[in-house]
Design brief:
- Helices cover about 40% and strands about 15% of the residues.
- The chain has helices at about 1-20, 40-55, 70-85, 100-105, 145-155, 170-180, 195, 200-215, 235-245, 275-285, 295-300, 310-320, 325-330, 335-345, 350-360, 370-380; strands spanning about 30-35, 55-60, 90-95, 110-115, 165, 185-190, 220-225, 250-255, 270, 285-290, 305-310, 330-335.
- The chain has a six-stranded parallel β-sheet, sandwiched between helices.
- Strand 1 (about 30-35), helix 2 (about 40-55) and strand 2 (about 55-60) form a beta-alpha-beta unit.
- Helix 2 packs across helix 16 and helix 8 (about 200-215) packs across helix 10 (about 275-285).
- The longest helix is centred in the N-terminal third of the chain and has 19 residues, at about 1-20.
- The protein is globular and about 65 Å long.
- The two termini are about 40 Å apart.
- The model is unreliable at about 135-140 (pLDDT under 50).
Length: about 375
């Protein structure tokens, strides 16, 4: 029944879109995300560069697809807005799956670029985990694998892209597998945020702003904990890390994923919600993460990295990785929080490993990433 309703809805959308396509194409680039209700840093940076180097109009549409009937109805109306701007644009840039892009038949000259929202390929995603019970698959985690596959097929998951950005040559095959494309569709191009994280003036300004907000961070070394999202966070493991810190010597700043629910907030900790994870890492002296793709951004900051992997076996069984996690990750790895803090105490890290990791998975260039992207857009739009 669900598949039938989806198919009828797709027919309905295509009929509406047929008439929307009668509007003329404008000198316009549209960026679409459902990662956030706010404009992402990557889109802000890219828009600024497009405005500086071209005469293209830039439209940014951001809206999360949230649970609940009212939210879904609201998103349907937002999709109509997406459809209009897609139909009247020369280029569309995405950082996530976009329903109208994959389901609808577009004008032949439209260029669609999938920029994705995570740099590098650490955890498997997309078609790489279609055969698993991972809760990050396209739809309800309670569905059987076969039903998910059928829905993915009906929804044409990740179809309709002309080009897909990958942060390096090493990442390109994994992105191709995840999106279900040939390697020829991959374009080696990191995310725009690389420009910020390598900008010394920006880092100095952010560091000052954060420490003015939290004056205690000026007095001690700062450990920043940035874990990946877990549907059911193990609070006792976070508490173990909190209890392992010597607060006479260190501050602990915890940057939880926005979707993480946590009931216990220890008063010894800075539970920051004012700054981005990337900005807070700039102000940190040590960075603790786990399986988060933020490790790629962290590798640009020349900071010691540590990996608190208390649920490693369980996580590997659910998600798995594109790389050999224990061999490739450039830092001290442990399931025990006390071992992590002891490694910090004894400077048990190797910055040369971090440099090697960065060079392997982020294609650095003398030019800024944003400028490289704009040059690429101008090139492909001319075809």
């Amino acid at each position: 029944m669900m598949l039938l309703i989806l198919k009828l809805a797709i027919v309905f959308l295509n009929i509406i879109y047929f008439f929307i396509k009668l509007f003329p194409t404008k000198n316009k680039i549209t960026m679409i995300s459902r990662q956030s209700d706010k404009i992402t840093t990557d889109f802000k940076l890219l828009k600024k560069e497009i405005n500086k180097c071209t005469d293209y109009q830039v439209v940014i549409l951001t809206k999360k697809l949230k649970p609940g009937i009212k939210n879904k109805i609201s998103y349907v109306f937002h999709m109509f807005k997406q459809m209009y701007h897609i139909a009247t644009s020369k280029c569309v840039i995405l950082d996530s799956y976009c329903i109208p892009i994959s389901l609808l038949k577009h004008k032949k000259k439209l260029v669609v670029i999938q920029m994705w929202h995570a740099m590098g390929c650490l955890k498997k995603f997309g078609y790489s985990i279609e055969e698993t019970n991972s809760s990050t698959s396209a739809f309800d985690k309670e569905m059987t694998i076969e039903k998910k596959k059928k829905i993915n097929k009906v929804m044409r998951m990740h179809k309709g892209y002309n080009y897909i950005f990958a942060s390096s040559e090493s990442s390109a095959p994994h992105f191709a597998e995840a999106f279900g494309y040939d390697i020829d569709s991959m374009v080696v191009m990191p995310l725009p945020i690389v420009d910020l994280l390598t900008d010394s003036n920006y880092k100095e300004e952010v560091n000052k702003r954060i420490k003015n907000t939290y004056p205690i961070m000026k007095k001690k070394k700062n450990i920043v904990y940035v874990p990946t999202f877990r549907p059911e966070e193990k609070e006792e493991k976070i508490q173990e890390l909190i209890d392992s810190i010597d607060y006479k010597k260190y501050n602990l700043i915890i940057k939880l994923h926005p979707l993480t629910n946590l009931s216990n907030y220890d008063e010894r900790v800075i539970w920051d919600k004012k700054f981005s994870s990337q900005d807070m890492m700039i102000a940190g002296n040590y960075i603790i993460t786990d399986y988060s793709a933020i490790v790629y951004e962290a590798s640009l900051l020349n900071k010691p990295l540590f990996f608190y992997t208390y649920d490693y076996d369980e996580y590997v069984n659910k998600r798995d990785f594109y790389t050999d996690f224990k061999k490739e990750l450039p830092g001290f790895i442990s399931t025990n929080s006390k071992d992590i803090i002891e490694a910090i105490e004894h400077d048990n890290y190797d910055l040369t490993r971090i440099h090697k990791f960065r060079n392997e998975y982020i294609d650095m260039n003398n030019d800024t990433v944003c400028h490289r992207i704009v040059l690429f857009i101008k090139k492909v739009i001319k075809r």
